[in-house]
Structures are given as C-alpha cells and as structure tokens.
Write a structure and sequence with these properties.
- There is one protein chain.
- This protein is mainly alpha-helical.
- It folds into two domains: 3-20 and 135-202, Helix-hairpin-Helix base-excision DNA repair enzymes (C-terminal) (Endonuclease Iii, domain 2), CATH 1.10.1670; 29-128, Orthogonal Bundle (Endonuclease III, domain 1).
- Helices cover 58% and strands 0% of the residues.
- It contains eleven helices and no strands.
- It has helices spanning 3-16, 29-38, 44-57, 61-67, 69-76, 82-100, 108-112, 119-128, 139-148, 156-166, 172-185.
- Helix 9 packs across helix 10.
C-alpha cells in the first residue's frame, strides 16, 4: 500500500472512532495483564464474563497468590485452556511480587519473561496500560494487514515490523485498536463486509464481497 493510501486508511479509521479502546475489561495494569493472558484462543466476551467476578475479588498479584490456583480455575473454567492459564497466572503473580514489588513492569523484556506472556501480550500491556505506541498482532490484525496490503507477512512478527514502518507516528498509539476492531467487525475471516468498509477503495483484496 502506498504511503499516501496508508495515511488515508488511518485517517478514515480515526474519523470513524477517535478514541478506540480495548474490549477487555480491566481495572489496572495487573488485571489488564491477566485479562490479555487469559484471552489467548478465547473471545474477549468470554474472558470478560469470567473476569468480572474474579476482578471483584482479585486486583493485585498479592491477592491472586492468596487466592491460589485451584480457586482461580473455578473462576476461569469457562475459558479455553483454563488449567494451563491458571498455572501461568499464579506463576507470573509470584514473580511480580518477588521481583517487581507487586507492580507490572514497563519494559518488554521483563514482561516477556513472565509465564504465559508472549510478544503480543507484552505489546498490548505496553500500549494500553502505559501508552507506548506498540502494535500487537493478533489473528485479526494479521488478516487485515495481509488482506488489505497494508502490511504483508508470513508471521505475526513480520506483519508487526512492517506495520511499525508503515503506520505514521501520529496514528501508532491507536493503530492496534483500530485494526483489531476493523478485523473483528468488518474485515471478518470468512466473509468480510466489504460494502460496509470505509477503506474498501484502498484495499488490495481481490475477492471483495458485494
């Protein structure tokens, strides 16, 4: 996609939604970290349903450690892979208490060193909790980047690196949310809603729906 088209692409997304936000519910950086870690291979709606009651009881790593893995599993048992996720959340909570004074670190290396936290989760936390201009590439953004021609790549990292180069600096803080929401509600996997798309004329996808 040409530089001018990229500028126009994000200008339109910004015009449609000037203050995009994550659809995961959270109350502080720690609960955001937990919510994002739980969201792997799960929907935001499903995660929110489980974390609503959980975050009323637990909103710090200390409280999570006190809750324990068995009780945590009961809260999140409706989420896919809940056994391994519960184990990771308890483990990362211990590390936050022992090594970071109960606070969520603001650097990628420390975040990615936590159990169950990969590059995507770290990028979400850095962006949403700390206002860093990171772009977390999930399945939606991977699809939108490749389908539109905005940032093509065979891996999420390749797409992320291309987005970091292509997206103008003034859009980077919110680019992650615009692309996720666009992929979730318009540029859907099976049947994209091209007639409703505000950037359809800028998109390189050849099999557009009519």
């Amino acid at each position: 996609m040409k530089k001018a088209d990229v500028e126009e692409f994000f200008s339109r997304l910004q015009g449609a939604d000037s203050t995009p936000r994550t659809e995961l519910n959270y109350v502080n950086p720690y609960t955001l970290l937990v919510a994002v870690a739980l969201s792997a291979q799960a929907t935001d709606v499903g995660v929110n349903r489980a974390t609503g009651p959980l975050f009323q009881v637990v909103d710090t790593p200390e409280k999570m450690v006190a809750l324990g893995e068995e009780k945590l599993r009961e809260y999140i048992k409706t989420i896919g892979l809940f056994n391994s996720k519960a184990k990771n959340v308890i483990a990362l909570s211990h590390i936050l208490v022992d090594k970071h004074g109960g606070e969520v670190p603001r650097d990628r290396e420390s975040l990615e060193a936590l159990p169950g936290v990969g590059r995507k989760t770290a990028n979400v936390v850095l962006n949403v909790a700390f206002g860093e201009p990171t772009i977390a590439v999930d399945t939606h953004i991977f699809r939108v980047g490749n389908r539109t021609g905005l940032a093509t790549g065979k891996t999420p990292l390749a797409v992320e690196l291309k987005l970091n180069k292509a997206v103008p600096d003034r859009f980077k803080l919110d680019a992650h949310h615009w692309l996720i929401l666009h992929g979730r509600y318009i540029c859907k996997a099976r049947k994209p809603e091209c007639p409703k798309c505000i950037v359809e004329d800028l998109c390189a996808y050849k099999a557009k729906t009519i």
